[in-house]
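lol forgot to send this yesterday, sorry. C-alpha coordinates for the thing we talked abt
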Protein backbone atom coordinates (compact mmCIF):
# COMPACT_ATOMS: atom_id res chain seq x y z
CA UNK A 1 0.00 0.00 0.00
CA UNK A 2 2.46 2.61 -1.21
CA UNK A 3 -0.31 5.23 -1.56
CA UNK A 4 -1.33 4.77 2.08
CA UNK A 5 2.25 5.55 3.12
CA UNK A 6 2.08 8.77 1.08
CA UNK A 7 -1.16 9.66 2.87
CA UNK A 8 0.67 9.44 6.17
CA UNK A 9 2.72 12.47 5.05
CA UNK A 10 -0.28 14.72 5.83
CA UNK A 11 -1.55 12.78 8.84
CA UNK A 12 -1.20 13.52 12.52
CA UNK A 13 1.60 11.46 14.00
CA UNK A 14 1.55 10.01 17.50
CA UNK A 15 0.44 12.63 19.96
CA UNK A 16 -2.37 13.89 22.16
CA UNK A 17 -4.46 15.39 19.35
CA UNK A 18 -4.38 12.11 17.40
CA UNK A 19 -5.24 10.04 20.49
CA UNK A 20 -8.12 12.35 21.44
CA UNK A 21 -9.51 12.40 17.88
CA UNK A 22 -9.42 8.61 17.64
CA UNK A 23 -11.01 8.20 21.09
CA UNK A 24 -13.88 10.58 20.17
CA UNK A 25 -14.27 8.85 16.80
CA UNK A 26 -14.37 5.37 18.35
CA UNK A 27 -16.94 6.52 20.91
CA UNK A 28 -19.16 7.90 18.13
CA UNK A 29 -18.85 4.78 15.97
CA UNK A 30 -19.63 2.58 18.99
CA UNK A 31 -22.72 4.73 19.68
CA UNK A 32 -23.84 4.20 16.08
CA UNK A 33 -23.13 0.47 16.26
CA UNK A 34 -20.94 0.52 13.16
CA UNK A 35 -18.09 -1.97 12.76
CA UNK A 36 -14.83 -0.61 11.37
CA UNK A 37 -12.16 -2.60 9.52
CA UNK A 38 -9.00 -3.52 11.38
CA UNK A 39 -6.70 -1.17 9.46
CA UNK A 40 -4.51 1.76 10.40
CA UNK A 41 -6.67 4.91 10.51
CA UNK A 42 -5.32 8.07 8.92
CA UNK A 43 -6.02 11.09 11.11
CA UNK A 44 -5.52 13.79 8.49
CA UNK A 45 -4.93 17.48 9.07
CA UNK A 46 -3.50 17.83 5.53
CA UNK A 47 -0.34 19.37 6.99
CA UNK A 48 -2.23 22.52 8.02
CA UNK A 49 -2.15 22.01 11.80
CA UNK A 50 -5.86 22.73 12.20
CA UNK A 51 -7.40 19.25 12.46
CA UNK A 52 -10.63 20.32 14.19
CA UNK A 53 -11.36 22.74 11.31
CA UNK A 54 -9.75 21.07 8.27
CA UNK A 55 -9.30 17.33 8.44
CA UNK A 56 -10.91 13.92 8.62
CA UNK A 57 -10.28 10.34 9.66
CA UNK A 58 -9.91 7.79 6.87
CA UNK A 59 -10.08 4.00 7.03
CA UNK A 60 -8.78 2.51 3.80
CA UNK A 61 -10.72 -0.71 3.25
CA UNK A 62 -9.17 -1.42 -0.16
CA UNK A 63 -7.08 0.42 -2.71
CA UNK A 64 -6.68 -2.14 -5.46
CA UNK A 65 -4.60 -0.46 -8.16
CA UNK A 66 -4.53 -3.44 -10.55
CA UNK A 67 -8.21 -4.36 -10.07
CA UNK A 68 -9.27 -0.72 -10.47
CA UNK A 69 -11.20 0.11 -7.29
CA UNK A 70 -10.93 1.75 -3.88
CA UNK A 71 -13.16 1.76 -0.81
CA UNK A 72 -12.70 4.02 2.23
CA UNK A 73 -14.64 5.12 5.27
CA UNK A 74 -14.39 8.89 5.75
CA UNK A 75 -15.34 10.46 9.09
CA UNK A 76 -15.73 14.14 9.92
CA UNK A 77 -16.66 15.75 13.21
CA UNK A 78 -19.29 18.49 13.43
CA UNK A 79 -18.10 21.49 11.40
CA UNK A 80 -14.94 19.74 10.21
CA UNK A 81 -14.21 19.99 6.48
CA UNK A 82 -12.35 17.79 4.04
CA UNK A 83 -10.65 20.55 1.98
CA UNK A 84 -11.61 21.44 -1.56
CA UNK A 85 -9.81 19.44 -4.21
CA UNK A 86 -10.27 17.69 -7.52
CA UNK A 87 -8.85 14.68 -9.30
CA UNK A 88 -7.75 14.46 -12.92
CA UNK A 89 -8.51 10.73 -13.20
CA UNK A 90 -10.42 9.56 -10.12
CA UNK A 91 -14.19 9.09 -10.30
CA UNK A 92 -15.85 8.91 -6.85
CA UNK A 93 -19.20 7.98 -5.36
CA UNK A 94 -19.98 9.06 -1.80
CA UNK A 95 -22.57 7.28 0.36
CA UNK A 96 -23.58 8.73 3.74
CA UNK A 97 -23.62 5.83 6.23
CA UNK A 98 -24.38 7.90 9.35
CA UNK A 99 -25.00 11.58 10.05
CA UNK A 100 -25.29 14.49 7.65
CA UNK A 101 -22.90 16.42 5.43
CA UNK A 102 -22.83 19.42 3.16
CA UNK A 103 -21.01 18.26 0.05
CA UNK A 104 -20.02 21.01 -2.35
CA UNK A 105 -19.26 20.13 -5.96
CA UNK A 106 -18.00 23.06 -8.02
CA UNK A 107 -20.41 25.84 -7.00
CA UNK A 108 -23.36 23.69 -5.91
CA UNK A 109 -23.91 22.52 -2.33
CA UNK A 110 -25.78 19.29 -1.61
CA UNK A 111 -27.24 18.51 1.82
CA UNK A 112 -26.97 14.74 2.28
CA UNK A 113 -28.28 12.61 5.13
CA UNK A 114 -28.08 8.91 5.87
CA UNK A 115 -28.50 6.93 2.67
CA UNK A 116 -27.61 9.92 0.49
CA UNK A 117 -25.47 9.25 -2.57
CA UNK A 118 -23.51 11.68 -4.71
CA UNK A 119 -21.28 10.96 -7.70
CA UNK A 120 -18.27 13.21 -8.36
CA UNK A 121 -16.72 12.77 -11.82
CA UNK A 122 -13.05 13.58 -12.49
CA UNK A 123 -12.16 17.27 -12.73
CA UNK A 124 -14.91 18.52 -10.41
CA UNK A 125 -13.80 20.53 -7.35
CA UNK A 126 -15.40 19.13 -4.19
CA UNK A 127 -15.31 19.26 -0.40
CA UNK A 128 -17.57 18.16 2.44
CA UNK A 129 -18.35 19.34 5.95
CA UNK A 130 -19.94 17.47 8.82
CA UNK A 131 -23.32 18.70 10.05
CA UNK A 132 -22.82 16.89 13.32
CA UNK A 133 -20.50 13.88 13.15
CA UNK A 134 -20.76 11.98 9.87
CA UNK A 135 -19.46 8.74 8.36
CA UNK A 136 -19.25 8.35 4.58
CA UNK A 137 -18.28 5.45 2.38
CA UNK A 138 -16.21 6.41 -0.65
CA UNK A 139 -16.32 4.02 -3.59
CA UNK A 140 -13.97 5.07 -6.33
CA UNK A 141 -11.23 4.37 -8.78
CA UNK A 142 -7.92 3.66 -7.01
CA UNK A 143 -6.49 6.41 -4.84
CA UNK A 144 -3.30 7.97 -6.18
CA UNK A 145 -2.01 10.72 -3.89
CA UNK A 146 -0.46 12.65 -6.82
CA UNK A 147 -3.94 12.85 -8.45
CA UNK A 148 -5.12 15.21 -5.69
CA UNK A 149 -5.21 18.88 -6.67
CA UNK A 150 -6.01 20.92 -3.54
CA UNK A 151 -7.23 24.51 -3.87
CA UNK A 152 -5.22 25.41 -0.74
CA UNK A 153 -1.63 25.34 -1.99
CA UNK A 154 -0.35 25.05 1.60
CA UNK A 155 -1.37 21.36 1.49
CA UNK A 156 1.93 19.59 0.73
CA UNK A 157 0.70 16.70 -1.45
CA UNK A 158 -0.75 16.31 -4.92
CA UNK A 159 -0.26 18.88 -7.64
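and heres what i got for the seq, position by position
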Amino acid sequence: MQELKKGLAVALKDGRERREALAAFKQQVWKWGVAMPKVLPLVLDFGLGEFSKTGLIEYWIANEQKAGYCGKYLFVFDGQTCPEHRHQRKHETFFVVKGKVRLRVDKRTHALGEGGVLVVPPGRRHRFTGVGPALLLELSMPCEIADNDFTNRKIPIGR
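The two ends are 20 Å apart (CA to CA). anyway ping me if u want another try
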